[in-house]
Amino acid sequence: LYPTISSDTYNKVWTDAQKDLDIQLQREREEFLQPEKDRVKVFKMLVTSYIKYMQIFRNLEMAYDQLIHQQKRTVIRQVLDGVMGRILEVKKEMVGLDNSEFHYIDNILEDLKLLPQLDSEDIEVPIPRYFIKEKLEVLQQREKILDQILLDAGLQTQVNKPLKAMTFEEAIKVIQVAERARQGRCRAAFMKQIYLEEKKDRQTKLQVQMGPGPDDAATCIQKVWRGYIQRKKTEKMREEEMIFLGMVSICLFFRLFPMYMADVETGCVEFAPGSGAFDPGMTEQGNVINQFLIHNSRTLEVSYSWNKEAKWRNQWLLDEGWDFLQDHDPELIKEEKREEVEEEIRVQVDELMQKKLENLKLAVDGEKSDKQKKGKKSEKVRAAMMSLVHRTIDSLYRELAEEGLLIKAKTVNLSDYVGEYSYLGTTLRQADTEPMPSLADVRQLIALYGILPLGSQTVHEKAPLVKALLLAGPAGVGKKMLVHAICTETGANLFNLSASNIAGKYPGKNGVQIMLHMVLKVAKQLQPSVVWIGDTEKIFSKAVPKAEEEMNPKQLEKILPKFLKALKAQDRVLLVGTTNRPFDAKLKPFCKVYQKIILIPRPDYASRFVLWKHIILQNGGAITNLLNISCLAKVSDGFTQGHIVQAVQAVLSELRLLQMTRKPLKTAEFMTSLARQDPVYKEEEETFKVTLRAMLTGCLSSSPAMSLSRHI
């Protein structure tokens, strides 16, 4: 009946995380509010805060996932979302100072006594498990509905795993093995019992011969003392149970728990909003560049406002052995429900007023249409849009799925995107050589800009908003895999608006506009959602090839900015574009749509070494001394993850897997398979760098929020 050990353990994890958070806030108040002009020093302060918040984030997420007390979880959830938002705020300022989305902080990690090789968790962005756990039933039901729709439309076939037939001899062998194992276990237990009985008899005879000794006296004393202690514990437990049942006076309660006689109140750390905007471009003229860190934070209010109302927090963190049911506090629920009722009434009143306003607008529009015959095209579009208003979300969902615009995301976790960190980034920069970003850096950016905002409504509303993300890189580096990983980690719907997928599905001048309106309505209603545009450079291409004229890829070019404008902070909808030929697009409209541009490079040596081992084992291979992984990592320089996967799958056929026990894998087998593929040549990589430099420069001139990546 009493709280388990795990509850006490994770209560301590929560307490320690809260203490670390208080210390971090105090440090920010002391350091960040002091005027500082040194860009390098401020960047180091930012990176240190980033790592500290990441550690706090990990501990809070662990406590939230393991604790079962609902009101505790509510408080932890609020702080957890605030810390996630604070991480995104600090990341934004790091990008502004470093002029790059990718940072090389191995020297700062060493100062903090953290090594990336050993403490990679300290810089890896954790994915909160509640993103999926708290809506698992809804996601499973939605998946069943989508599978049925796709089956009915003929877009998906029923996949039944074939059952392997077992012969009569194999069945007898399995039964024999199980029965022999059972008999062996019974025989071992019987022999152990005989051995223990014989050992006890020998010890008894020896004690009788030698008489009582010091050990016997100590044992007797221990028995008496333990009995006394146990009786006291039992008496206390009985009194606690009586208190819980309300059968003991309050005087006895305070005699048992004197610590509750004091009025325990928590402190509150608040930061009044102040002036002083941060302008990274003016720091060289002497402006202070670090006071923004607290003044402009929107997530600190979310993280710590709970301290004002949670005067019972310290009582939760004290000895709670008497609260063995982990029950709720009814007063907190009443206070919370009062606010909810007020909000519900306010929403209902707002809806009634909006309906009246819409009816008035329709009446006015009807009078104008009788008097004027202009604007017939806009009226047709409006009529089409109004027809969608009266349709249910289920019908729109079914139509989009039947048209192939709403697709089923593959089950891929972000951790499946294997890649190591760049451990020599700072060293290379000191030698005036700009390092290429690593795959682990790409994984971090996907988690920060894609997964965390989509998974948490609070983070999406309060943290810096990213509506559109562009993943650019050669074919085979895993761009589509990252799109599916975002959907898997957040439970998001996936809409495929690639030019090749929407061609001919909604014809007419207003067809594309109606299609986007349907997608936007379903994506908002069933958020989170990801709208994916593959080969997005075709939409902004300078010239359409003759072979693609019927596909009309440029029909989304003018509508996409309006689509993004319709997305508000409360709409957890992310536009993700992928491209392996960004140099074919017109840069100005391209940069107008995509707010963040992430270059996904070829894997470096460390990542290739890990990839070869991971992919070989994943496909059923075994690594022996005859297989030199280091050699494969070296000779595969210039090849992408897709090339390595194809090479491994070509070698590890069913026949080769059967032969592996007597004929181990050798390095030459994979090298031969890899040699049949074309790598990413340096000329293509240089073209990527030049194009993305131009894109980011154009984005900088059009939007101050964009940053010029130093690695380009």
What report would you give on this structure?
It is a single chain. The chain has helices at 5-31, 39-66, 70-98, 106-111, 130-133, 136-152, 168-210, 214-244, 250-256, 292-295, 299-304, 306-309, 313-317, 330-371, 376-389, 393-402, 425-430, 439-455, 457-462, 479-490, 499-502, 511-525, 560-565, 587-593, 605-618, 629-635, 641-651, 654-659, 667-675, 682-702; strands at residues 406-407, 468-472, 493-496, 529-534, 573-579, 596-599. By secondary structure, it is mainly alpha-helical. It has a six-stranded mixed beta sheet with strand order 1-3-4-5-2-6, with helices on both faces. Helix 1 (5-31) runs antiparallel to helix 2, helix 18 (439-455) packs parallel to helix 20 (479-490) and helix 24 (587-593) packs across helix 30. The protein is globular and about 105 Å long. This is IQ motif containing with AAA domain 1.
Our count of helices gives 30
Mean pLDDT: 79
How much helix, percentage-wise, in residues? 55-70%
Strand content: under 5%
Radius of gyration, taken over Cα atoms and rounded to an integer in Å: 32 Å
Total beta strands = 6
Alpha-carbon distance between the termini? 61 Å
Indicate the overall shape: globular
Protein name: IQ motif containing with AAA domain 1
InterPro entries: ATPase_AAA_core, IQ_motif_EF-hand-BS, N-DRC_Component, P-loop_NTPase
Domain ATPase AAA-type core: 469-584
Keywords: ATP-binding, Nucleotide-binding
